Amino acid sequence: MHTHPNARLTPIGRERLIRQHLEKGRSLAPLGADHAISDSTARQWLARFRSDGPTALADRRSVRRNQRRTLDPQQLKQVVKLRHQRCTLRKIARLLLVPISTLARAMRRLGGC
Q: Into how many domains does the chain fold?
């Protein structure tokens, strides 16, 4: 994964910061200032390091972790068919194993059906 171009620290720099804090006993506030990051950011990196070790200092994706889902055309036909049979969205969601929010969005696109 590539480091963000505006990132103050690379994963190596983050580990160096944490090691200086843990091994040399330096306070996080001055260390953060030396590396041009806030005290809260330094504490965040320390918490991640303590929970998962050096691998937690790697860059993370900034994309949403749960993407919106869409229905494929066959599922959409089933939704319309079931809706015409007066099934509720909750029942349709259970039958098709899809989130209600996805169904509601599809129904809005179709004009309510």
A: 2
pLDDT digits (tens, 9 = 90+) for 40-50: 999 999 999 99
Asked if residue 46 and residue 78 are part of one domain, the reply reads no
Separation between Cα atoms, residue 105 and residue 98, nearest integer Å = 12
Residues making up the chain, counted from first to last = 113
DSSP state of 65: S
Q: Are 87 and 78 in contact (CB under 8 A)?
A: no
Look at residue 67 in the predicted model and tell me its pLDDT: 74
Same domain? For 52 and 78 the reply is no
Please check whether residues 49 and 83 belong to one and the same domain: no
Residue 104 lies in a domain: yes
Residues 6+ apart with CB under 8 A from 46: 18, 21, 28
User: In sequence order, which residues have a C-beta less than 8 Å from that of residue 84 and are 6 or more positions away?
Assistant: 113
Average pLDDT over residues 38-63: 90
